[in-house]
Design brief:
257 residues, alpha/beta, Rossmann fold, 7-stranded parallel β-sheet, 8 helices
Length: 257
């Protein structure tokens, strides 16, 4: 018997089998959940290939989380695929232009690129939750992924600002969805060698920092520990937890030099 037996989980953001989202889908299935995943654009073809390794192979729905029309069509698409309700929703969506908004260009980034980062990485957390809200009820859980935005990181630049916005949005989402019994929490992960991380110039230094400082150690090639925390937040075990940021980073957030 798994902690997600009978639950219906929607997972966004799968690209490769190294991604946190992929591991969330895998662990959720192992814990008894029925999973549907979403993907967009060129990433959709990558997603469809990689989810063939899951058992059972989940349905892949097209979703552009920055499009009102695409978001409005999501509930109908979920119903057509047997999801008359949603127990858990993973937001694993983020983007900042690696040439203009990441890698040390912070002071020269123009508003258009900043706006894209904020809409895709912060605002979409709320808009996605609102799109699925009609299928969610008491006990449902929204979970997003962040990278500790309380401090600055090398090369992370406007994505760091966007994650700060995401963390604030999470608290407000928890405030407004709480009366309906819907929880909203974030997981702050350590660095994972995913496709998204590799697109950020200079982030290899983060692996060295985690190797040196994380009290529990850290394996940047294994997202399973992060996925376990996400799935626990989907479960009924965290029924009274909302507006929280749970760290799954080997404990580095708690250490000084």
């Amino acid at each position: 018997m798994g902690i997600l037996d009978g639950k219906k989980i929607v997972v966004t953001g799968i690209t490769m089998n190294t991604s946190i989202a992929y591991k969330v889908a895998e662990v959720a299935q192992q814990q008894g959940a029925d999973v549907i995943v979403t993907a967009f654009g060129r990433a959709a073809s990558l997603c469809r290939r990689v989810v063939k390794h899951l058992d059972p192979v989940p349905e892949v729905l097209e979703l552009d989380a920055t499009s009102e029309e695409s978001l409005a069509a999501l509930p109908g698409a979920l119903r057509e695929n047997g999801f008359d309700h949603v127990d858990g929703l993973l937001h694993s969506i983020a983007y900042a232009n690696p040439k203009t908004a990441l890698g040390g260009t912070f002071l020269a980034t123009g508003w258009d690129d900043v706006a894209t980062s904020l809409q895709t990485s912060s605002y979409s957390y709320v808009s996605l939750a609102m799109a699925v809200r009609e299928l969610m009820g008491s006990g449902s859980s929204v979970v997003g992924l962040t990278f500790d935005a309380t401090i600055s990181w090398p090369s992370y630049d406007w994505m760091g600002v966007a994650k700060a916005g995401l963390e604030s949005a999470n608290r407000y989402l928890a405030r407004y969805l709480g009366p309906d019994g819907i929880r909203s929490n974030l997981v702050s992960a350590g660095p994972i060698d995913s496709l998204a991380k590799k697109a950020i110039p200079g982030t290899e230094i983060l692996n060295d920092a985690w190797t040196d400082r994380a009290p529990l150690g850290w394996n940047a090639k294994d997202a399973t520990p992060v996925a376990g925390v996400v799935c626990a937040l989907f479960s009924d075990l965290f029924a009274a937890t909302t507006g929280e940021i749970v760290h799954a980073d080997g404990g580095l957030f708690s250490t000084g030099i």
